[in-house]
Amino acid sequence: MDKAMNGDGVYGLNGETVALSEAKHINGTPSKSRIACENGEADIHAAKRNGSKKRTPSDTFSFTAEPTIEDIRRMQAEFTDERDWNQFHQPRNLLLAMVGEVGEVSELFQWRGEVTEGLPGWTDSEREHLAHELSDVLIYLVELAEKCHIDLPQAVLRKMALNRLKYPASKVHGSSMKYTEYKD
């Protein structure tokens, strides 16, 4: 883990050191969820510029910057508080609700065979239904992380750093084997 993390940040998408910097949310409150590379720029497309050979249509897709995960956490906390639902939203209950929502996402893909990226054969209504179900999963995931006191953006950075160590590109390129199956 020492190799994956240092005092100032963690390794980013291509092994560059990244540090957390202050950023503004929609409501103007500071956040540490934005990542900045050593040169001060957020750079999520480094792999594209650093010579990845095969790019997919997903390269043209990106999420909007807002709402942030913190914004989603805050909105859901307010929604739950307004309804006095915290009594029901304990970690186990949230986990089971999230699993149920994942099942609903699965139903949308069931019996379709392999689905092409971008869902070209899906109607607008089907895509909207999927958006609703994926949103439910994300909302429950964020609320579960909150109830467990897990800083999800930071946990993702740490996990990605660990994944880089487990799955070095030079060793696993083009393979789907689990890291325990690789020989040194």
Report on the architecture of this protein.
There is one protein chain. The chain is mainly alpha-helical and 184 residues long. It is built from 6 helices and 3 strands; from the N terminus they run βββαααααα. The protein has a 3-stranded antiparallel sheet, with helices on one face. Helix 2 packs across helix 4 and helix 3 runs antiparallel to helix 4. The longest helix is centred in the C-terminal third of the chain and has 24 residues. The radius of gyration is 19 Å and the shape is globular.
What is this structure's SSE topology?
Layout lengths: L8 E3 L5 E8 L5 E8 L8 H4 L19 H14 L8 H19 L14 H24 L4 H15 L2 H4 L12
Antiparallel strand pairs: 1-2, 2-3
Compute the number of strand runs: 3
Which term fits the overall shape? globular
Strand content: 5-15%
Helix content: 40-55%
Class of secondary structure makeup: mainly alpha
By oligomeric state, this entry counts as single chain
How would you spell out the order of helices and strands?
A: EEEHHHHHH
The end-to-end distance, rounded to whole angstroms, is 18 Å
How many helical elements? 6
Radius of gyration: 19 Å
Largest sheet: 3 strands, antiparallel
Unreliable stretches: 1-52
Order of strands, widest sheet: 1-2-3
Overall pLDDT score: 77
Main attributes of the structure:
disordered N terminus, single chain, mainly alpha
